[in-house]
Amino acid sequence: QEATISETTSNSLELTNQDQDEVYEKKIKGKVYFVSKSDNMTVFEKNNDGTIGNDVGYLEKQGEKFKMVWT
Asked: What is the mean pLDDT of the chain?
């Protein structure tokens, strides 16, 4: 599935797992998610309370654009 992705804010948070990684918010298909700034660009749900939720996929670079790959 391909998604239109637009950055909503440059604020960053830290994941609370062992591999601490900075994330930023992206709007994907009308919903805001957190995306890791690491090379793998993992996408996480944004919980209602603003915390980082489950891993739902990753962004894959295709030319000049990114494709959302849902897992």
From this structure: 81
